[in-house]
Amino acid sequence: MAEKQHPVPAYGLAARDHSGLLSPFNFSRRETGETDVKFKVLYCGICHSDLHMLKNEWGSSTYPIVPGHEIVGQVTEVGSKVEKYKVGDRVGVGCMVGSCRSCTNCSQSIENYCPKMILTYGGTYHDGTPTYGGYSDVMVCDEHFVVRVPDSLPLDVAAPLLCAGITLYSPLKFYGLDKPGLHIGIVGLGGLGHVGVKFAKAMGLKVTVISTSPGKKQEAIERHGADAFLVSRDQEQMQAAMGTMDGIIDTVSAVHPIMPLIGLLKTQGKLVLVGAPEKPLELPVFPLLMGRKIVGGSCIGGMKETQEMLDFAAKHNITADIEVISADYVNTAMERLAKNDVKYRFVIDVANTMQAP
Question: Which residues form the Enoyl reductase (ER) domain (predicted)?
Fold first, then answer.
């Protein structure tokens, strides 16, 4: 087994098969190389994609799998050539730990679109060994893929920003939907959507939350500061809002109709998908032609932009709404996540509850 090659003992939670059940797992990390940062994991957020990967719902999982790509902690060791970090720094690692560093995408700081991008878990590292994520006590990562967590952001509420935060921040910026005064819709008020509302409001946008759940109206407006709330199953409400939005960020991962969303857009509006339904959606072309509308996608962000997002979050006091859990509660948390029974992100208190026996 490749595990044996690495000298740093690590302890975490892994699934051994597509039941997705997590149990204690002893493994090892590589020693801190010249450009590596080693850190003690303090918190790790639980992302919906962790659940998909644990159960092999996307068909790409290899076991054993240690999930977790919203990882924050404190630096304990740095390699001799590390320039950005020192022992004691507060750092994070998001969805990727490597890329080729030489292709066009990498040179443009969009390493997340590098064809050789290496996922934080469930991937294969440059040395041929499997990558393991943040449901573990220690992390070793090349400094290029490490971000600094600003001092004003508490680590537990900052962890989900490393996936959920950048997933919403990046398309708002790239598609030009970050200009004050624009009106945007955010579909879904879950782990992604609630953070998106906060970023959009901090950018000076008018925000309408679009949801199938009328019960979420109060929290969308009073708790997160949305300007309006639209029940997507209410034909009258949808009809009244037709042609009013400059852009829509759709965070929903279930199969759902996008025709009504396209109708909400103004001429030349943009619908950006960031959720990943497992079956194809139906795309009606005629409404796109008649309004010169765009349907696009976006997946996390590059390292430079991820740091920019964290700094923006610190400046505007943007954090995720979380429920902190202990390591032994993780399987229950996964059951609850499958039922969307969380407001809005579970975060594992790794430092205090995940110790090797």
Answer: 20-348
| Max Cα-Cα span within the chain | 63
Angle of helix 303-315 relative to helix 193-202, nearest 10 degrees, comes to: 70
Element (H, E) at 105: helix 104-107
285 exposed, middle or buried (CB, 10 Å; 0-12, 13-18, 19+)? exposed
Give dist(CA 281, CA 22) in Å, integer: 32
Q: Which residues is 24 bridged to in the sheet?
A: 13
Greater pLDDT, 302 or 280: 302
Judged by phi (left if over 0) then psi (alpha if -120 to 50, else beta), residue 268 lies in: left
Instruction: Residue 299: count other Cβ atoms within 10 Å of its Cβ.
Output: 16
What is the three-class DSSP state of 38? strand
| Helical packing angle, 164-174 and 303-315, nearest 10° | 100
- One-letter amino acid at 34 equals E
Contact 21, 13 (CB under 8 A): no
> And the tokens for 207?
């925000």
Cis omega (within 30 of 0) for bond into 214:
no
Which amino acid type is present at position 113?
Answer: Y
- The architecture of the domain spanning 2-163+320-353 is Alpha-Beta Complex (3.90)
Domain 166-297 has CATH 3.20.20.70: no
Residue 326 parent element (H or E): none
Residue the block writes with tokens 């202990």: 326
Distance in angstroms (rounded) separating the CA atoms of residues 325 and 84: 31
Mean residue pLDDT across the chain? 95
Q: Express each pLDDT in 83-134 by its tens digit.
A: 999 999 999 999 999 999 999 999 999 999 999 999 999 999 999 999 999 9
- If DSSP states are collapsed to H, E and C, what string results for 108-140? CCCHHHCCCCEECCCCECCCCCECCCCCECEEE
| Nearest residue to 283 via CA among 275, 294, 274, 298 | 294
How close are the terminal C-alpha atoms of the chain, in Å? Answer: 22
- Determine phi and psi for 282, rounding to 5 degrees: -85, 130
Residue 98's DSSP bridge partners are: 118
